[in-house]
């Protein structure tokens, strides 16, 4: 009921009959080839232009169907659509973070974190090397498809390393978790270049990790 | 020292497959050498026994499925992924004795542990899945099933076209890594298309798989990049082995009564 009045309110604001926001593919802040040789341009193009776009397209489609189901009060459909929304919406969330987690070497990619996040890493894990080791081993051990994360627990103020399956966002592992860094370990993220040697991909990706973004998010969320 | 598995000689379903497919290269069966190894070490008074599973070769050369599945894919998929699962499994089995003497089927069911999988499940199931997958394909495959299999498909799906649609749809709507199966459901006594995640296979629910398709990205990414639809259609049109499916159906009918009971009317 409340949702329906929200929709009509949006209509009067002139957002069109549906008033439903559609999502679109964010631009990469760098060229497809800018992350070479850590990640090939071919992978970046497919990953961004095909995979991420597909998640967005299907997310929009699922939301449209959800809107229809909500309007009709069709609970069966509302519930049935949840998995498609979680998967495709999660894919959109995760990849949007991922592109910001990466940056070309010439723009600071791979430069280790300093300031507050650097100290937090040393406190929580001992050193950056230990953290990288932990992330790499958890990422390599992940069975199937998923992500490996460095996250901040806003409640306990601790840094954590977590993995999520498929496109589950980090928050599914803990409602207070905020993603600082995520590494996509779906095979499409590395297969064309590294084939089945996921550990090599994980070793090399650190050369283009954008710690500046992680520091930004950490600074904002740890207040 | 209790053991979950007590077959003294592995009754491998692979043996029956090769019976029905005389034209194929006969698969090497390293299970035999495992048996010999056990007797040998026992006779020498050794206290430690090892179980080793071997990497079975596909029943065709690695380039035989070109151009639908490239030799490069077979090399990486079979020689890399499948081999890693076998070696990983053997390493895990070195540390435990309870899982000895199992056939592959038994090992998969036991390690699945009714939904709470043991650490060995992933490797065991993926070894089984890939053995089954290579066998599910053949050079010059595709086309349509004949006779009994076709009849059963038409009975349970309405038509072959309908089954094919369902199979393709299942493959394209799978979230994440997994497999698509044509399976004979034991209790319902009918065929069904199901999809499973990661390493799960219908064996764990005691159903009988007839055909499988690997939808992990590594199975198609080198050949088709993200074009899953093309991969699935190529599989159905050119790779799936209905010969093998026929053999598996025939064996399955020894365990599942698919016929109508002939009840005499007084």
From TrEMBL, chain A:
Residues of the Manganese/iron superoxide dismutase C-terminal domain: 115-214
Catalytic EC class: oxidoreductase
Cellular component GO terms held in the UniProt record: mitochondrial matrix
A GO MF label: manganese ion binding
Annotated EC: 1.15.1.1
Compartments it resides in: Mitochondrion matrix
Cofactor or coenzyme needed: Mn(2+)
Catalytic activity: 2 superoxide + 2 H(+) = H2O2 + O2
Highest taxon in the source lineage: Eukaryota
Main location as per UniProt: mitochondrion
Record-listed Mn(2+) binding positions: 47, 95, 184, 188
Keywords, in A-Z order: Manganese, Metal-binding, Mitochondrion, Oxidoreductase
Location of the Manganese/iron superoxide dismutase N-terminal domain: 22-102
InterPro entries associated with the record: Fe/Mn_Superoxide_Dismutase, Mn/Fe_SOD, Mn/Fe_SOD_BS, Mn/Fe_SOD_C, Mn/Fe_SOD_N, Mn/Fe_SOD_N_sf, SOD_C_sf
Assembly description: Homotetramer.
Family as reported in the entry's similarity comment: Belongs to the iron/manganese superoxide dismutase family.
Function: Destroys radicals which are normally produced within the cells and which are toxic to biological systems. Destroys superoxide anion radicals which are normally produced within the cells and which are toxic to biological systems.
Name of protein: Superoxide dismutase
From TrEMBL, chain B:
Cofactor needs: Fe cation
GO CC annotations on file: chloroplast nucleoid
Record GO terms (molecular function): metal ion binding; superoxide dismutase activity
Domain of life the protein comes from: Eukaryota
Organism: Carya illinoinensis
Manganese/iron superoxide dismutase C-terminal domain ranges (all copies): 149-246
Stored Pfam families: Sod_Fe_C, Sod_Fe_N
UniProt protein name: Superoxide dismutase
Entry keyword set: Chloroplast, Plastid
PANTHER family: SUPEROXIDE DISMUTASE, SUPEROXIDE DISMUTASE [FE] 3, CHLOROPLASTIC
């Amino acid at each position: 009921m409340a949702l329906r009045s929200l929709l009509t309110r949006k209509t009067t604001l002139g957002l069109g009959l549906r008033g439903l926001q559609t999502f679109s593919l964010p631009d990469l802040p760098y060229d497809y080839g800018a992350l070479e040789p850590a990640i090939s341009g071919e992978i970046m193009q497919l990953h961004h232009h095909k995979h991420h776009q597909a998640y967005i397209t299907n997310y929009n489609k699922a939301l449209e169907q959800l809107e229809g189901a909500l309007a009709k009060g069709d609970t069966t459909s509302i519930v049935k659509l949840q998995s498609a929304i979680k998967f495709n919406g999660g894919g959109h969330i995760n990849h949007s973070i991922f592109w910001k987690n990466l940056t070309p070497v010439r723009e600071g990619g791979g430069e280790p974190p300093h300031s507050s996040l650097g100290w937090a890493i040393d406190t929580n894990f001992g050193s950056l090397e230990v953290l990288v080791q932990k992330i790499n081993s958890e990422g390599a051990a992940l069975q199937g498809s998923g992500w490996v994360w460095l996250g901040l627990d806003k409640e306990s103020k601790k840094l954590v390393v977590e993995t999520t399956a498929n496109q589950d966002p980090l928050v599914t592992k803990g409602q207070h978790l905020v993603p600082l860094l995520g590494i996509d370990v779906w095979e499409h993220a590395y297969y064309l270049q590294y084939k089945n040697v996921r550990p090599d991909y994980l070793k090399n990706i650190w050369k283009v990790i954008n710690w500046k973004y992680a520091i930004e998010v950490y600074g904002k969320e740890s207040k | 020292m209790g053991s979950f598995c007590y077959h003294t000689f592995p009754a491998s379903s692979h043996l029956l497959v090769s019976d029905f497919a005389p034209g194929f290269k006969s698969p090497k069966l390293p299970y035999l050498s495992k048996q010999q190894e056990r007797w040998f070490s026992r006779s020498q008074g050794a206290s430690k026994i090892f179980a080793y599973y071997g990497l079975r070769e596909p029943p065709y050369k690695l380039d035989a499925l070109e151009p639908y599945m490239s030799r490069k894919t077979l090399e990486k998929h079979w020689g890399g992924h499948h081999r890693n699962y076998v070696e990983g499994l053997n390493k895990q089995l070195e540390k435990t004795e309870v899982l000895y003497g199992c056939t592959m089927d038994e090992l998969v069911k036991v390690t699945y542990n009714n939904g709470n999988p043991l650490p060995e499940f992933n490797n065991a199931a993926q070894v089984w899945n890939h053995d089954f997958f290579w066998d599910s394909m053949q050079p010059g495959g595709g086309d349509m099933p004949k006779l009994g299999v076709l009849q059963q498909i038409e009975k349970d799906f309405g038509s072959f076209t309908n089954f094919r649609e369902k199979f393709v749809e299942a493959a394209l709507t799978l979230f994440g890594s997994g497999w698509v199966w044509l399976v004979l459901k034991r209790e319902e006594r009918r065929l069904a298309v199901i999809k499973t995640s990661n390493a799960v296979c219908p064996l764990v629910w005691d159903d009988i798989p007839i055909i499988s398709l690997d939808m992990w990205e590594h199975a198609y990414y080198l050949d088709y990049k993200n074009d899953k639809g093309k991969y699935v259609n190529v599989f159905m049109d050119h790779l799936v082995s209905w010969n093998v499916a026929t053999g598996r159906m025939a064996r399955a009918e020894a365990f599942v009564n698919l016929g109508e009971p002939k009840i005499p009317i007084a």
